[in-house]
Write a structure and sequence with these properties.
The complex is a heterotrimer of chains A (285), B (222) and C (629). Chain B is of the alpha+beta class. Chain B has one helix and 14 strands. Helices cover 14% and strands 32% of the residues of chain B. Classes of the chains: A alpha+beta (285), B alpha+beta (222), C mainly alpha (629).
């Protein structure tokens, strides 16, 4: 009985020391994670959705910091303090502690549920820039007034259509600033993934399917677009940095200029639709 | 006893080393494989390139004789299967295409309009801005430079069509397309065809459409 | 060893080559390949027009592979037993167990031989996959391509497919086959012939995957996404055959493990006394058994799409690529736990031995593994957060994915608390096991970014997710794989591994691993998608850093190889029977373990974790060794 009591006392002594070290480390690490590392994580504030992701990342690194500190501090402490000092020495024959197990289950469950709840809240708020399929569930406010723009993936280029401008198709994406945009992402052949890196937008482009993304642009910006799903030989080259977010008036000018530029081929374009089934569907030749 | 073991081990080591070197050579060769680079002579920042497109590249020019391909004309007048071209920066590249292949049709009709050229492209001598996408046989496109030219195919009922390369522009049915584009900064830019023209492949986009040396290549701007 | 005159080992060398062995198998395999190739061309030559004018004859490739595999397995002697039974001969339960080195080159029903075969075979393909990784990092030294862009994508696919396919057996193959029967007090596996079959199918699969380079490679990476899959060259057929064979092998391996543990435990080996490693194997085996058939079914449909012109996955023909994505990840997410769970088992098995302490919270650890096993069925759509599948269920998948942290956390708690107040010895296997804590911590936490949809939008399909799964799989599985090698190899071969070289291997591998993959999180955040041959020039210095570290990682593997060859072939220091002072039963047996394992089957009287309580007999008779005759 006495031996068990000393074990208990020693446990409490080590445990308390560990707790102090962990608290100290967390007090230092968490603000650094939340306010120094967190804001450095892209996609930045190119859009409201991107900004939401930055906040999300900030929260996640802030929550991660004490967890990392706990495991590292506990591991380091244990390995140093309880290293073998005598070749014959054995450890304490402890096989468990139901109180500690319960505490651990409660703490991890609460953390995990809180994170899941937070992630869900961020997602439900505005869809957070991810592709939501043909009928989006998580809509930002005023989604009725969103401007439609279509992204067409094909091997190996994205082209863009503007249904509000008569179905004009262009090789680069221009978007007006301070506007809620509804992107319809589709593909003509295989699966691509439209990734507008500094808007915080990613949506797979699927053949025969419409994938809707809401994104609220903010200030003028150079867009950095890449394909994020392996789509064949030139997947690595399927990028475009000529796209822009521009002011409302610049956008109008750009539309006029594009309409003039692509007038010659306009009559051949199919009518605007959310999905296309181009020929030949199967084996060519 | 010990020496036999040593001999055995030595034999295994040598065998493994030889096999490793052979496999290493094979892998290196496989990874670095590709068509030869073609470097046209440039005069006063102008380059002329003459190419032909063929429906089947034929057994002499490729291990895949029935693949569709681009060929480039060497100064001596012979044709070579090369899709990696080296051209100078900040210069005009004038391309003449002899188009021997029939039409397949563009998947995205938007690409039937020329983009990013200096002046107009010409088809059999007549300037054009766009073609009917159903008649497209190939496109010559360098997306990073914004260059795109749709190449109209030979009519299905044309006489004396070319079966496989090299095809002779003097005697065989073809279309002639010319265009000029400007190169800017140095770099390695890919070019490709957007028409699903690979016979026998699902969606017409496998095989030659996804292999450098057939319907894909690089423009090395130096 | 006292051979008799008729012993096969004393026949002339050329005579021994004739019979059921690897040589015959390879000959028959190649013969089968050509027969299938010929048949394929014959049946499609006239009737199927689109093959007529192209060389894209997928049917002949598939038939070639199928008949090749059948020939290979026939040559190894897998038809011998069923045919003998059909002809009315009595069944023999075990085959070819006492020959010399020859038994390693054929069908052998001794689970310890199969374990060694697996170790060599899986190790070989691990090094092939690793060399692929070196070449990938070499290409990424520069932002513009050096290699042929198409072959580079094949290279990436080969690396991914090789690792994801073959490494499912990295721990289950060698160590579970070798030690699970011993740990539960059995003389063999429940289905010894199937046990050998799983190994040889895996080897056939690996060889088939590598032949893809002769058929133009495959452009899809390890996921094989449709419809890129149906567009691809005949090299895609190699991928499909590879994964189908791996799937069948995994399924049979899982079945065999479960049957063995359920039916063949010795008296006294109750469920609550099973070594925790066996629980890790059981959890994995459940996933193997249930997940792999889904993959095989998905690939069967791919095969039909590519040969019989069906349109299961082609939207233009009424199919759906989402079907493939769902089926693939319904297999694919359990698959990543198939890779992770054996690592949990090895970790928790090793910690008590080197902390000289009982396993802390045995039931919680088991619950953690089974919890992961269960939850891994409910999370697959987190791979499809931006895929365009209807978004209604996203919150469910956020929740289910993050819930996996709870059972995974059990492993952390049990591991850390096993160390707590122990007497920790920093042996080489222990170092590799301890690295798990750090690696899996980073891997697990980065997983939270990927499970949380808003954060996943930017990280999905980027180098971030690539770094994440290398932290969990390489950091979780490969480190524990090496821990298991350093721990158990002396028992399997009877020779010690050099400890100094082992420590050099560990430190170089651990540091280089972290230097390689940690910067890749940043590379992903900064916008580099996976599997690209070219990237933004401003990311070059981060990529170069990762490449340099990756080459050091590659060198650390050479240290291991050197150690292995040096210790096993040259130094040949006899291992003690129980160098680690383990209480587990396999360490009470001679090294290497004799053919029948035990003279008399043991009766278990407790779990193998009675450290610190004074000498506690694990089994009676306490690991009575069989005589090595």
């Amino acid at each position: 009985m006495a031996a068990a009591d000393t074990t208990r006392v020693a446990d409490v002594r080590h445990g308390r020391r560990l707790l102090y070290i962990w608290l100290g480390a967390s007090v230092v690490a968490t603000p650094i994670a939340a306010f120094v590392i967190g804001p450095m994580i892209p996609p930045g504030n190119g859009s409201e959705q991107g900004q939401g992701q930055v906040f999300d990342n900030q929260v996640l690194v802030a929550v991660s910091a004490p967890i990392v500190m706990f495991v590292l501090v506990m591991l380091g402490y244990t390995l140093i303090v309880f290293r073998q000092r005598d070749a014959a020495a054995q450890g304490a024959p402890v096989r468990g502690d139901s109180g500690l197990q319960l505490l651990w289950i409660v703490i991890t469950s609460v953390t995990v549920l809180a994170l899941a709840g937070f992630g869900t809240y961020e997602l439900v708020k505005d869809g957070s820039g991810g592709g939501q399929g043909p009928s989006a569930t998580f809509l930002p406010a005023d989604h009725g007034k969103a401007m439609d723009v279509q992204v067409i993936g094909q091997q190996w280029e994205f082209t863009y259509r503007y249904p509000t401008y008569g179905g004009l198709e262009t090789p680069h994406l221009y978007l007006p600033a301070n506007t809620l945009i509804r992107l319809h992402v589709t593909s003509l052949d295989v699966i691509h993934s439209f990734w507008a890196i500094n808007l915080g937008v990613k949506a797979d482009a699927n053949p025969g399917a419409d994938n809707v993304v809401y994104v609220h642009t903010k200030h003028p910006l150079k867009l950095n677009i890449r394909c994020a799903e392996l789509c064949g030989l030139w997947h690595g080259y399927m990028f475009d940095s000529a796209g822009r977010v521009v002011s409302e008036s610049d956008f109008k000018t750009w539309i006029k200029q594009q309409q003039a530029e692509f007038a010659a081929g306009f009559k051949y374009l199919p009518p605007y639709a959310t999905v296309y089934h181009p020929e030949p569907p199967l084996r060519a030749g | 006893m010990r020496s036999t073991v040593a001999w055995k081990i030595g034999g295994i080591v040598v065998g493994v080393a030889v096999a490793g070197i052979l496999i290493g050579f094979y892998v290196a060769n496989w990874l670095l494989s590709g068509p030869p680079t073609y470097r046209p002579s440039a005069t006063a920042n102008r380059v002329n390139i003459t190419i032909q497109t063929v429906a089947a590249v034929g057994p002499t020019l490729s291990p895949n004789p029935d693949w569709v391909s681009y060929l480039v004309q060497k100064p001596a007048g012979t044709w070579e299967r090369s899709t990696i071209w080296t051209v100078p920066a900040n210069s005009l590249v004038h391309v003449t295409v002899y188009q021997f292949d029939g039409d397949s049709g563009l998947r995205n009709p938007f690409l039937a309009k020329t983009q990013g050229l200096v002046g107009m492209a010409t088809l059999d001598g007549k300037p054009f801005a766009a073609i009917n996408p159903d008649n497209a046989s190939h496109t010559f496109a360098i997306p990073e430079l914004g260059v795109l030219v749709p190449l109209e195919g030979v009519a299905d009922n044309a006489k004396n069509q070319c079966d496989f390369a090299p095809c002779d522009p003097k005697s065989m049915a073809h279309r002639t397309i010319t265009f000029t584009f400007r190169t800017g900064k140095k770099g390695k830019f890919r070019w490709q065809c957007f028409v699903p023209c690979a016979a026998g492949f699902q969606f017409g986009f496998g095989g030659p459409m996804q292999t450098i040396g057939y319907m894909d290549g690089f423009l090395n701007v130096v | 060893m006292s051979p008799t005159a008729t012993h096969p080992a004393h026949q002339p060398f050329w005579r021994r080559l004739i019979g059921f062995n690897l040589l015959t198998a390879v000959v028959l395999g190649i013969g089968g390949w050509y027969l299938g190739w010929f048949l394929g061309h014959h049946i499609t030559g006239k009737s199927v027009s689109y093959f007529g004018d192209t060389d894209q004859n997928d049917i002949s490739v598939f038939l070639g592979y199928i008949l090749g595999v059948i020939g290979f397995l026939t040559g190894l002697g897998f038809l011998q037993y069923p045919l003998a039974r059909i002809r009315g001969y009595p069944p023999s339960l075990r085959e070819k167990e006492t020959e010399g080195i020859g038994r390693y080159f054929g069908l052998c029903t001794d689970h310890k031989v199969v374990g060694m075969q697996y170790l060599i075979g899986v190790g070989l393909f691990f090094f092939v996959g690793g060399l692929n990784a070196m070449l990938i990092r070499f290409e990424l030294l520069r932002p513009t391509p050096v290699f042929n862009a198409g072959n580079y994508i094949t290279l990436v696919g080969l690396h991914g497919t090789m690792m994801m396919g073959m490494m499912t057996s990295a721990i289950l193959g060698p160590f579970a086959n070798y030690f699970v029967p011993i740990m539960i007090g059995a003389r063999r596996m429940a289905f010894p012939r199937i046990e050998s079959l799983t190994f040889w199918m895996l080897m056939a699969a690996g060889a088939i995957l590598m032949t893809t380079v002769f058929f133009g490679g495959f452009p899809t990476g390890w996921t094989g996404y449709e419809p890129l899959n149906v567009q691809a060259n005949r090299g895609m057929d190699s991928y499909i055959m590879f994964f189908a064979l791996v799937g069948i092998s995994m399924c049979l391996l899982g079945l065999n493990m479960l049957a063995t543990v359920v039916t063949m435990r010795a008296p006294g080996m109750t469920w609550s006394r099973l070594p925790i490693f066996v629980w890790g194997v059981i959890s994995t085996a459940i996933l193997n058994l249930l997940a792999a058939p889904v993959l095989v079914a998905a690939l069967a449909m791919s095969t039909l799409d590519r040969t019989a012109q069906t349109t299961f996955y082609i939207p233009a023909g009424g199919g759906s690529q989402y079907l493939y994505e769902n089926l693939f990840w319904f297999f694919g997410h359990p698959e990543v736990y198939i890779l992770a769970l054996p690592g949990f088992g090895v970790l928790l098995e090793l910690l008590p031995v080197f902390a000289r302490k009982p396993l802390w919270g045995y039931r919680l650890a088991v619950a953690g593994m089974l919890g992961v096993t269960f939850l891994s069925w409910l999370v697959w759509q987190h791979h499809l957060f931006v895929s365009g599948i209807n978004s209604n269920l996203r919150p469910f998948y956020i929740l289910s994915t993050e819930l996996i942290s709870i059972p995974t956390g059990f492993t952390f708690l049990c591991g850390l608390m096993t160390l707590w107040r122990g007497s920790i010895r920093f042996t080489v296997p222990m170092l590799f096991a301890l690295a798990w804590f750090f690696n899996f911590l980073i891997g697990g936490l980065s997983g939270i970014f990927l499970s949380d949809t808003p954060s996943d939008v930017s990280t999905h399909g980027s180098f971030f997710s690539m770094a994440h799964f290398h932290y969990t799989i390489m950091g979780g599985l490969i480190f524990t794989f090496f821990a298991a090698i350093y721990y158990w190899l002396p028992k399997m071969t009877g020779f010690e591994l050099n400890e100094r070289l082992g420590k050099i291997h560990f430190w170089s591998m651990f540091l280089a691993f972290n230097f390689t993959f940690f910067p890749l999180f940043a590379v992903g955040f900064l916008g580099q998608p996976r599997r690209v041959v070219t990237y933004a020039p401003h990311l070059q210095w981060l990529n170069d850093w990762a490449s340099a570290a990756a080459f050091v990682l590659g060198l650390s593997m050479l240290v291991f190889l050197y150690n292995l060859v040096y210790s096993m072939l040259f130094a040949r220091v006899r291992a003690e029977r129980n160098p680690w002072g383990s209480l587990s039963i396999e360490w009470q047996l001679p090294s290497p373990v004799p053919v029948q394992n035990f003279d008399t089957l043991p009766t278990f009287e407790g779990d193998p974790y009675g450290y610190g309580d004074g000498p506690v007999p694990v089994a009676r008779p306490a690991g009575a060794p069989a005589r090595a005759s």
